[in-house]
Amino acid sequence: MPDQRRTPDWALAELVAGNQRFVDGSSRYGHRIAAALAAATNPRPYAAIVGCMDSRVPVEAVFDQDFGAVCAIRTAGHALDRIAVASVTMAVETLGVALVLVLGHTRCAAIAATLEPRWSDEHDNAATEMIARNIGTMGTVDVRAVTRGHVVATVRTLRGIVASAVAGAVYDVDTGRVEVLPTA
Questions:
Q1: Helix or strand or coil: residue 98?
Q2: b/e code 9-47 from CB counts within 10 Å (16+ = b)
Q3: What are the chain's domains?
Q4: Who wins on pLDDT, 87 or 130?
Q5: C-alpha pair distances (Å), 109 with each of 19, 73, 127, 160, 164
Q6: Beta-strand relationship, 70-75 and 165-171
Q7: How many CA atoms are closer than 13 Å to the CA of 138, on its beta-carbon side?
Q8: Strand ranges for the chain from DSSP E
């Protein structure tokens, strides 16, 4: 019988439950050295989270996860460069994660910069170029819609690369809540 704790459905439910604990102020996990040492010899992450490098979105805290539970892959605007893709692939193929979660967030500076032509013209930024490719055909400058569209596009890209379940979500920096997006 397969280990139920290693299925994509279990992994997503655990992340959602952890976010609820975070929002409720009842987090189980903190930054304890004993937990770090216990995970050091045999980490068994069940999920990889591809998120933004924004300091307001520390994924282990947002999902109330202990050391060794998740692999965090963070770039500006969760842009998929070569290293990010290699990291996701390693998490899936080497560490056996059951789920890859793409996590966008509200008030993302990388999304806002991508939508600001003046900023894009003045700066050569690989992250905004990648985001622009994902949102280029959306026809909107609504940051919320663009953020959601970028998450969905990133999910689709990763589904073509890894043999693991891939889901998408958006974190609200004002409420702490994570909304899982329909990405089918």
A1: coil
A2: ebbbebbeebbeebbeeeeebeeeeeeeeeeeeeeebbb
A3: 4-173 (3.40.1050.10)
A4: 87
A5: 23, 18, 11, 27, 29
A6: unpaired
A7: 22
A8: 47-52, 70-75, 99-105, 165-171, 178-181
The letter for the amino acid at 131 is I
Q: What is the reported pTM?
A: 0.86
Rounded to whole angstroms, the Cα distance separating 172 from 153 reads: 19
pLDDT confidence of 132, banded at 50, 70, 90? confident
Say how far apart CA 66 and CA 76 lie, in whole Å: 24
pLDDT per residue as tens digits for the range 49-108 = 999 999 999 999 999 998 899 999 999 999 998 999 999 999 999 999 999 999 999 999
DSSP state of 6: G
For the four alpha carbons of 131, 132, 137 and 139, in that order, the dihedral sign comes to: positive
